[in-house]
Amino acid sequence: MDKKKIAKASGGLHGTIDIPGDKSISHRSVMFSALGDTPVHITNFLHAQDCLSTAACMKSLGAEVRFLNEGELMVTGHGLHGLQEPAGIIDAGNSGTTLRLMMGILAPQPFLTTFTGDASLHHRPMGRVIEPLTRMGACIYGRQQNQKLPITVVPSAEKLHGITYQSPVASAQVKSALLLAGMYADGNTTVIEPFRSRDHTEQMLEAFGAEVEREGNSVTIHPVRTFRTPESIHVPGDISSAAYWLVAGSIVPGSSLLLNHVGVNPTRTGILDVLKAMGAKLEIRNRRISGGEEAADIRVESSFLHGVSFGAEIMPRLIDEIPIIAVAALFADGDTVITGAGELRVKETDRLQAIVDQFNQLAPGAAEGVEDCLIIHGGRPLQQAEVFSYDDHRMAMSLAVLGMAGEGAVLRRPECVNISYPQFYETLAGLC
User: Fold this and answer.
1) Which subcellular locations apply to this protein (predicted)?
2) In total, how many domains does the chain have?
3) According to a count of CB atoms within 10 Å of the terminal CB, is the N or C end of the chain lower?
4) Residue 173 assigned to a binding site
């Protein structure tokens, strides 16, 4: 499927949507369960390419990973020190989360591991994880001065050392890699961020019995002797996937949607704050705890939006949602100014430039981007056009919503949504 035609919505969007499992939590549920020594039953697992890459990685390291159906699996490990040397090269696919967190887990192991990935992952920067792990005593080697795949993790001659690391970026992946390595270190490991990033790793480490201390933007993990594996983990719905329907329901006139079982961890709900500031009609219902994480149902109705400004402080809480927030901004009154968004340039593609180039195909002159800043001029006339996904799942879904809410679009390379949301187009067609 090289192209997909996205039709303009003929009326309001109505219905109830079950949101797929959270990608970040799905990754961690398999990794952490594989470090325990009793079976863990995982439900609402995101059965998409990125998370399947993690499942395959843990299986290649000796864990038993058995799927009962698409969203349900059993994972049994051999204890915190029970991973085994893989027989071949481990393929992380398109998943930066898989690669970066696995480097943290494997840096302390007494065997060699080599990673590869797809063409996109080969271009993404890994030095931000490798450099602090090296400070801990890890031996990790990669292409382009230890920056790029392929990457090999070599056994260290000594036990890793606990360190205090002042991270220059607020990155859950960097933080998580260091905390996971810190479980095996000879002392406490502390990560200090400029802003607080998403905390799924800390939440799950605590659920598995690790001693974690949190204060402001600082997180400390104590060395771990054994994991206390839970019997089950239920993964809440992914707010990053819900984001497309939150925006679609806001911008298509006459819409009313109910999104079931969405994760509302406060470190992930920046999009709710921004949409509310824009004037969106959102109602949070039935708050509860699911798998140790906060979850709720969200009702969204169409509304009149206006432009807003936000920047670096909130960015860790909504970095993956910037493309779809930019879609909302196109339908808002006035300009939306987004600063501190430089991290967009090192995602699956340069998302900041991709937004500018592709949005201007559908809304000429509506998007500007300079360095870490994105400006969207709302209310510009829309037209039908052919647009390109860059094989980036979040760009593909954002452009599809934009085409559906606008004058239609032809989307080139649409199949990349399988990375995080395989049912996306089916759900979109059902709503329309």
Assistant:
1) Cytoplasm
2) 2
3) N
4) yes
